């Protein structure tokens, strides 16, 4: 989605070395205002990084179905039944490949960005675990 790509592009242009990036919440009214303005004019207004990250989180939270569809929840959870980590990985890779193409592209784009954020954990304190805690519930909802 263009909103997500625009927000991520803006974040990465400014730099992702903001302490607590994605963990520090912006003011909800400002987040909602920026999202509405983007919907109306197709451009991001000048905002703090925490407002922009808030828009990204809000977008995924407001989707009618999560990026990994609720209907696929049990299929993904079943990967835990595989005893060997390699088998778990193979199962997950196979299942991700079966996602609707739009979901797959969005998930890939987002995860690549989050990986770049985690690679800067020394300056932003955002490890993969921290990011998973923040994004997991909105990308992968329980039925």
Automatic annotation (TrEMBL):
Gene3D superfamilies: Rho GTPase activation protein. Pfam families: RhoGAP (PF00620). Residues 1-143 form the Rho-GAP domain. GO terms for molecular function: GTPase activator activity. Transmembrane segments: none annotated. It comes from Helobdella robusta. Keywords: GTPase activation. InterPro entries: Rho-GAP, Rho_GTPase_activation_prot, RhoGAP_dom. The lineage of its organism: Eukaryota, Metazoa, Spiralia, Lophotrochozoa, Annelida. The keyword Transcription does not apply. It comes from the Eukaryota. SMART domains: RhoGAP (SM00324). This is Rho-GAP domain-containing protein. GO terms for biological process: signal transduction.
């Amino acid at each position: 989605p263009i909103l997500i790509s625009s927000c991520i592009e803006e974040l990465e242009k400014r730099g992702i070395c903001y302490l607590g990036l994605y963990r520090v919440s912006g003011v909800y009214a400002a987040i909602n205002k920026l999202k509405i303005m983007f919907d109306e004019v197709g451009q991001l207004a000048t905002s703090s990084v925490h407002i922009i990250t808030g828009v990204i989180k809000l977008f995924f939270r407001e989707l009618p179905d999560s990026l990994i569809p609720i209907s696929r929840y049990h299929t993904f959870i079943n990967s835990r039944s595989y005893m060997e980590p390699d088998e778990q990985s193979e199962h997950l890779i196979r299942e991700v490949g079966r996602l609707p193409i739009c979901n797959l592209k969005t998930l890939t784009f987002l995860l690549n960005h989050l990986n770049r954020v985690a690679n800067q954990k020394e300056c932003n304190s955002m490890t993969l675990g921290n990011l998973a805690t923040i994004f997991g519930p909105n990308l992968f909802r329980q039925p």
